[in-house]
């Protein structure tokens, strides 16, 4: 058995090398396909965009890391399928069995590669990807497809400076106006001051919001609030209209630390925390999809045996898309409250890991 160890190590390195080539190919192929699909979907808006061509190119380039991250699990599955089916088709699988080697030892390097990809995915999603995606969304909403030019927002909650929150029945970003605005100043965990007005208008010269026909309230810990009517009151609320445009922050724009901070803000405002909680657990669980799909790919590829590599790519795409669909459906159920956030994040992994275990025990490995 000691003499067998060098052979095992050589084949282990060989299997590891066989993993990376199809992984890189699959990552590029799947990312391009999904990126082109998204591009064609947005093409009418891109052609009508008032943004300069270089801004559109910058937006498209910043989208590339996001789509690449979305398809990393598919590339891991493809790499596993190609590596193992190639090992079988070349006769090497039969050769190592005839030589008396334990075949499982030649599959372990694939799991180590999947673990390395898992770590890489987690590191990327915490550093490069949030920055790129957030910057792309800013370019899209502010330059490429500036929805503030025609949108009106009804019954919105807006945040400006520190501890300043404003609600408005109607918000007109382009005109810089609000109807029925209520500006709350928070201090010591409660509302310390409030401006309740008929309307508010942005003054570009003074760079502040002017409230009209309203009541100013000051709250004390003991006793009723002190109220004072006003016809026109320049406030210290100085956030410009276009900065105030309400845009839901996508979890993909945030790291784990930022998602936790966002969750605290949601709870402070009294909104439902389910979406942020589900996103938090999904960020932790998503990188492990690489490991699960690698575990699934090994027995699946042994069942494919001598199939062509094109068949392996088709199987990887089909199984990977089902997996992604399952994860998205589970997240939707988590946001809707049908599943708890931890279950919504981990149930797809558990289901596919169970399928992988069943295939493994029913396949001649």
What can you tell me about this protein's structure?
This protein is of the alpha+beta class. It has twelve helices and seven strands. α9 packs antiparallel against α11 and α9 packs parallel to α12.
Q: Please estimate the helix content.
A: 55-70%
Record field, number of beta strands: 7
State the secondary-structure class.
alpha+beta
Number of helices: 12
Give the count of structural domains. Answer: 2
One letter per element, helices H and strands E, the order comes to HHHHHHEEEEEEEHHHHHH
Radius of gyration in whole Å, from Cα? 27 Å
Low-confidence stretches at least 5 residues in length (pLDDT < 50)?
none
Q: Mean pLDDT, as a whole number?
A: 85
- Strand coverage percent: 15-25%
What is the terminal separation in angstroms? 20 Å
- Summarize the biggest pleated sheet: 7 strands, antiparallel
- Could you say which overall geometry the principal axes of the C-alpha atoms support? elongated
Search tags:
365 residues; alpha+beta; 2 domains; seven-stranded antiparallel β-sheet; 59% helix; 16% strand
Summary, kept brief:
With 365 residues, this protein is α+β, with helices and mostly antiparallel strands. The protein is 59% helix and 16% strand.
Would you spell out the secondary-structure blueprint of this structure?
Layout: H1 4-47, H2 53-70, H3 72-89, H4 92-98, H5 108-126, H6 128-144, E1 153-159, E2 164-172, E3 177-179, E4 182-187, E5 190-203, E6 208-218, E7 226-234, H7 241-244, H8 256-268, H9 274-285, H10 289-304, H11 309-336, H12 341-361
Antiparallel strand pairs: 1-2, 2-3, 2-4, 3-5, 4-5, 5-6, 6-7
